[in-house]
Specification:
By secondary structure, the chain is α/β, with parallel strands linked by helices. It contains ten helices and ten strands. The strands form two sheets. It has an eight-stranded mixed sheet, with helices on both faces.
C-alpha cells in the first residue's frame, strides 16, 4: 500500500516499510541515551502498526449496496512540523454532483475511522467528507494518546482545510468537531482568515467546559506538563463514564485498538483545560455560523457550556439542538441516524442561504 503526502506530493509507502529501517530516520539517529533511542523506536513502531490498522479499516469498495456510490481513499498530510498525519476521504460519485465538503475532526483518544457510517450518509446527500487523525491518534505520527499542544492541532486543522479547498476549488466547506475536536474547530474558526474559508461549523458535545476526574489534576497539570508531559495520570481515567446508551457502541469503542484507553497523559489533560479556558473567555468573539448539538445527560463535557456558547456568541447565524437524556458520543447513540439527519438538514440550510 502506498500513500501520497498531501503537502508535498511524495509517495509514502507505509505497509511494506520494514521496522529496521526506522533506525536510520532523523529522529532515531539523534544523539542521546540508548534508553531514549529505544523509546523513539518503540513510538515509531507503534505508529506504523496503528497506520496499518487505520488503512485496514478502508472498506475498499465504491458504494454501500443501496443504490448510491462513493469513493473512499486514505492518504498522509505532512504538517509544518513534518509530522505525517493520516486522513481518509469519502467522495460521492459522480464527483460532478459534489455540493459541499465536511472536514471532520474527531475527539480525544478516538480516530477518523469511527465516522465511516456518518460519512457514507453524507455522501448519499452529495457531500464529500475528509477526516483527519490528530497527532498521536489513529494512523498519525506521535505517541498514542499524547497531544503536546492543542494549538498544533488547531494549526493542523487550518492547514488541512486550506489543502482541501485548493483541491476542490469553488466547493463550499464546513468544519465538524466532536468533543475536544469541537473545541479545536471552534478555536480555528475564531480566526478571521479561517472563518472566511467556511460556510459554517458543526459541533457535537464540544469540550467548552470539562471537570477533571480528580481535583488534583487541575492543580498539578501545569507543573507536570513541563516536567513529565507524557506521564499517565491514572486517577484521571474516565473510561468508566458511559458515553453512549448503545451497549454495542460501547463495546466497539473500547475494543478498538486505535482508540486510546489508557490514563490521560498530563500534558494532554493540561492542553484540554487550557483550550476550554480560552474558549470560555472568548465566546463573544465567535462570529462564524454554527450548529451545536449536545446531550443533556452528557457527563464528559458540560451541555450548559454549549448553551452559553449559543447565548454569548456574536454569530448572526447560530443554532443549538439539545437531546434530552442523550450521552456524549451523539453519533453513536441509538438515535444516531436522527442526529445525522439534523446535521445534514442544517448543512443544506446553510447552502440554500448562500
Amino acid at each position: 500500500m502506498e500513500l501520497t503526502s498531501g503537502a508535498s506530493g511524495r509517495i509514502i509507502p507505509y505497509r511494506r516499510r520494514k521496522a529496521e529501517n526506522l533506525s536510520s530516520s532523523p529522529l532515531s539517529s539523534k544523539s542521546g541515551s540508548g534508553f531514549r533511542r529505544k523509546g523513539v523506536f518503540r513510538e515509531q513502531e507503534d505508529t506504523l502498526k496503528r497506520r496499518y490498522l487505520a488503512e485496514s479499516l478502508m472498506v475498499g469498495g465504491n458504494g454501500d449496496g443501496e443504490g448510491f456510490f462513493f469513493e473512499e481513499n486514505a492518504s498522509l498530510f505532512v504538517n509544518s512540523r513534518r509530522n505525517a498525519l493520516f486522513y481518509r476521504s469519502w467522495t460521492p460519485l459522480p464527483a460532478s454532483e459534489l455540493k459541499g465538503i465536511l472536514i471532520l475532526i474527531h475527539g480525544l483518544n478516538e480516530h477518523s475511522g469511527r465516522y465511516g457510517h456518518f460519512a457514507t450518509q453524507l455522501t448519499a446527500c452529495n457531500f464529500g467528507v475528509y477526516a483527519l487523525d490528530w497527532i498521536g491518534h489513529g494512523g498519525s505520527d506521535g505517541l498514542h494518546g499524547y497531544v503536546p499542544s492543542l494549538d498544533h492541532v488547531v494549526a493542523d486543522t487550518s492547514a488541512f482545510l486550506e489543502k482541501v479547498r485548493l483541491e476542490n476549488p469553488g466547493i463550499p466547506c464546513f468544519l465538524f468537531g466532536h468533543s475536544t475536536g469541537g473545541a479545536v474547530v471552534l478555536k480555528a474558526a475564531s480566526y478571521p482568515a479561517i472563518e472566511a474559508m467556511l460556510e459554517g461549523i458543526v459541533l457535537t458535545s464540544p469540550a467548552l467546559r470539562v471537570n477533571p476526574a480528580h481535583p488534583i489534576v487541575k492543580a498539578l497539570a501545569p507543573v507536570f506538563s513541563l516536567i513529565h508531559p507524557t506521564l499517565q495520570f491514572k486517577g484521571a481515567n474516565k473510561r468508566g463514564i458511559p458515553v453512549s446508551r448503545d451497549p454495542a457502541a460501547l463495546v466497539a469503542k473500547y475494543t478498538d485498538p486505535l482508540v486510546y484507553t489508557g490514563p490521560i497523559r498530563v500534558r494532554t489533560g493540561h492542553e484540554i483545560l487550557r483550550i476550554c479556558n480560552y474558549l470560555q473567555r472568548n465566546m463573544a468573539a465567535i462570529t462564524v455560523p454554527f450548529l451545536v448539538l449536545h446531550g443533556t445527560a452528557d457527563k464528559v463535557t458540560d451541555p450548559l457550556a454549549s448553551q452559553d456558547l449559543y447565548k454569548f456568541a456574536s454569530s448572526k447565524h447560530k443554532d443549538i439542538k439539545l437531546y434530552e437524556g442523550f450521552l456524549h458520543d451523539l453519533l453513536f447513540e441509538p438515535e444516531r441516524d436522527e442526529i445525522a439527519r439534523d446535521i445534514m438538514d442544517w448543512l443544506e440550510m446553510r447552502l440554500e442561504s448562500k
